[in-house]
Specification:
mainly alpha; about 750 residues; 29 helices; Methane Monooxygenase Hydroxylase, Chain G, domain 1; single chain
């Protein structure tokens, strides 16, 4: 090694040592209070610096090209930039799609109503409302990280800024549209290009993230189920966090797929299926918990021994999967536990039915053996789901050749919410247009533009007023910073380079604030509106009057939107919970009588979606009420799954005719279960208990082993349904209003 190489190596070592002193590896960086500004994490600082430089480059190119409003190029960079490459690319794609749709619609709007202001305002409001309606129905949760919805937000955003600029000069609408589209494309291309320069081993890191996501989910599920088997009564709160993590991690898979590039296979599909299987695993655990807590059911020594082995396996499973790429040792241990459960079921049947050397068990003993057999049956089914989850995980980690597996992103459309979001946005924008028309305000179009931007961004959220309030705070800070820059700093520079140096620190501060969760929306607002308030140009500088004529409509527009969101169809957590409960009860009736049966995975994912939505929108609701509703959702999911399994047993026609008739009658009663008032709760619960007693007696008289196993499967489902109905009577009895005072 020559002296130059040695010097470079020493320099690199010193740099790495310096960075490790600033950001020690493995130590979480606190970002609370003001630490996000003076002690940011390395990743946060890199994101802020990269995006600041990219936005300044976009601004410089726009000025070099002598475009009319170069600030939109810098704004687009901040709107598209995200912390990871996958998120940035996904958002850029949908933003570009939304820009094309919005540009076309804006040109058509101005061409159709150049001299009809009221019709123009009406169609502007209807257009953005339509984008919000479509965005609410697109796949995935309505969060700021879902970029299909962002495509519709970008459509409304572009539709507003082009049409409102164009209506003042309709003869040049095409040139205005092309210039705005140029800014947006420039910002997207630059952000995507610059962010790609800072990516190292992108595909491998994306694969590692998929692996880490599954291990996180399976470890949480394993620890929760182990606690459940150990008798932990606080298992609901643990399951709550696991279900939330599953939804969050599943939402991130599509970004990892983007990062893996064109060479990827179906790793993302298998990863989604694996996480869905983890949710199914938890649902099987809830079945087992119901069987364990059936009154009079005491787990025997055989079940306790098997349960102890399963607990030890579940607690160590994630660590074993993480240490090696070979899942066969884990599957071998799992297979032995499954065999032990099956053997216990077989031994129980032999003891109950008797053999050539032993007599059948007396009725009292037979009942105890039946209860123990159901526990082993439920434990075995839980282990079967765990096996499928591990197999899907292995397929995501080791892609298969000629694999055609596909697991699509589930969509749970809420048409009522979509209509509410659309109407709220339309009314807000139309009201701002009426203010402009009636007051003849010279800055009225600017006011309408900011109102339209806010409606496009936030009307797809359930609580837009809260988001707009945070946005208003960021806009106020942007106005203060812009006032300092416009009135004091920027009048002096005469070259772009000096101006960029002046803007570097203010923009960098906004990027650093983006990493602190409490400040995210305020930071987004600050980063978006700061370039607009600065209004840089080649031949001019923003004077005091122009600055105030931009800042005042901005603040008033956000303030107006916030209050209209609070007045027009405001979000009500009590009403949300009531509607959710009504739909759950209606869904149970649908599952019991529908000709087309939903899959068990669909039922689990639908209720997990409700679970997460309830937690997200809890606001200041007391914990007792939230826990009661969460328990009701989990209980409804458990009942729905067992109804599907019962219908599968009926369709196989292996039950004796008398047992088939009893179960059919019980299902007919369940088909009348829900209704807003007088929901037949009591009759359904009694019909379930009656079916249990009848089939329990028939089972002891059945001599065919296969039929007896089928009857035991039906008994497991009926016992679980009965237990859930008894323990969540207030939730399932539709004649009860289930209002908050009932639970407190």
């Amino acid at each position: 090694m020559n002296s130059l190489e040695l010097s470079l190596l020493q320099f690199q070592t010193r740099i790495v040592a310096f960075l490790r002193r600033l950001w020690p590896p493995g130590v979480p960086v606190r970002q609370d209070h003001m630490r996000w500004l003076f002690a940011p994490g390395l990743f946060t600082f890199g994101y802020a610096l990269r995006t600041t430089i990219t936005s300044l480059i976009a601004l410089g190119i726009a000025l070099w090209w002598e475009l009319g409003s170069p600030q939109w190029a810098a704004l687009t960079v901040w709107m598209v930039a995200q912390g990871t490459r996958g998120k940035s690319v996904a958002k850029a794609r949908w933003h570009l799609f939304g820009m094309v749709v919005g540009t076309i619609c804006a040109v058509l709007l101005v061409a159709a109503f150049p001299q009809a202001p009221l019709m123009f305002i009406l169609m502007l409001a209807v257009g953005i409302g339509t984008f919000c309606f479509i965005g609410t129905l697109l796949p995935g949760p309505a969060t700021m990280t879902n970029y299909r919805i962002h495509g519709m937000r970008a459509s409304g955003f572009t539709y507003a800024i082009i049409s409102l600029d164009g209506i003042a000069d309709p003869q040049h609408i095409f040139m205005i549209a092309m210039s705005r589209a140029t800014y947006i494309v420039l910002g997207i291309v630059l952000e995507s290009t610059v962010s790609s320069l800072f990516q190292y081993r992108l595909g491998a890191r994306a694969q590692d993230r998929l692996t880490h996501n599954f291990l996180t989910a399976i470890d949480g599920a394993g620890q929760t189920l182990a606690s459940l088997l150990a008798g932990d009564s606080d298992v609901l709160k643990k399951a709550r966090q696991v279900f939330t993590n599953i939804t969050t991690l599943s939402d991130q898979i599509e970004f990892a797929e983007v990062e893996m590039g064109a060479q990827r296979g179906h790793e993302g599909d298998h990863a989604r299926a694996a996480l869905a299987r983890v949710a199914m695993l938890l649902s099987r655990g809830l079945d087992l918990a119901a069987l364990i807590h059936i009154p009079g059911n005491v787990p025997g020594a055989a079940f306790n021994a098997t349960s102890a082995k399963v607990q030890a396996f579940l607690r160590d499973m994630a660590g074993q999967l993480e240490m090696t790429d070979d899942i066969h040792p884990v599957l071998a241990t799992l297979s032995a536990l499954q065999a032990e459960c099956r053997q216990s079921v077989a031994d129980s049947l032999e003891d109950e039915m008797g053999s050539a050397t032993s007599d059948p068990a007396p009725p009292a003993v037979a009942h105890i053996l039946s209860q123990q057999r159901m526990l082993h049956y439920g434990l075995g089914k839980m282990l079967d789901e765990l096996e499928q989850a591990i197999i899907q995980f292995d397929a995501s980690r080791h892609p298969l050749r000629h694999d055609h597996f596909h697991y699509r992103i589930k969509t749970f459309r809420d048409w009522q919410q979509a209509f509410t979001n659309s109407l709220r946005a339309s009314v807000t924008i139309f009201g701002s247009g009426l203010i402009w028309v009636t007051t003849a305000w010279s800055s009225g179009l600017t006011f309408m533009m900011f109102v339209s931007i806010v409606c496009s961004l936030f009307s797809t959220l359930e609580k837009p007023a809260l988001a707009t309030k945070a946005f208003l705070g960021g806009a106020i800070w942007a106005s203060v910073m812009a006032a300092v820059l416009v009135l004091w700093v920027l009048p002096t520079p005469s070259t772009y380079e000096v101006m960029a140096m002046c803007l570097m620190v203010p923009m960098l501060m906004g990027g650093l604030a983006f990493a602190y969760p409490v400040l995210i929306l305020g930071a987004v607002s600050y980063n978006l509106f700061l370039p607009i308030l600065l209004g840089p140009g080649n031949q001019s500088r923003l004077d005091e009057v122009s600055f105030f004529n931009t800042a005042m409509p901005l603040i008033l527009g956000l303030w107006y939107s916030m209050w209209v969101f609070r007045i027009v169809l405001p979000f009500d957590t009590n009403d949300m919970r009531w509607q959710m409960r009504t739909r759950i009860l209606r869904g149970l009736r649908h599952v019991a009588r529908s000709r087309t049966l939903p899959t068990t995975l669909y039922v689990v994912e639908r209720n997990v979606d409700r679970f997460v939505r309830l937690l997200t929108d809890a606001e200041n609701t007391p914990d007792a009420i939230i826990d009661a509703y969460l328990q009701g959702i989990l209980s409804a999911m458990t009942i729905g799954l067992n109804i599907i399994r019962l219908r599968g047993i009926l369709e196989r026609h292996l039950l004796p005719p008398a047992a088939q008739e009893v179960v059919t009658e019980m299902m007919a009663r369940m088909a009348q279960f829900s209704g807003r008032y007088g929901g037949h709760y009591g009759r359904t619960a009694r019909a379930t208990k009656f079916a249990i007693d009848r089939i329990q007696n028939m089972t002891q008289q059945e001599g065919n082993l296969g039929v007896r196993l089928e009857m035991n499967g039906a008994l497991v489902c009926l016992y679980v349904i009965s237990y859930e109905l008894d323990n969540n009577q207030k939730f399932f009895d539709a004649s009860s209003p289930y209002l908050d005072p009932v639970l407190t």
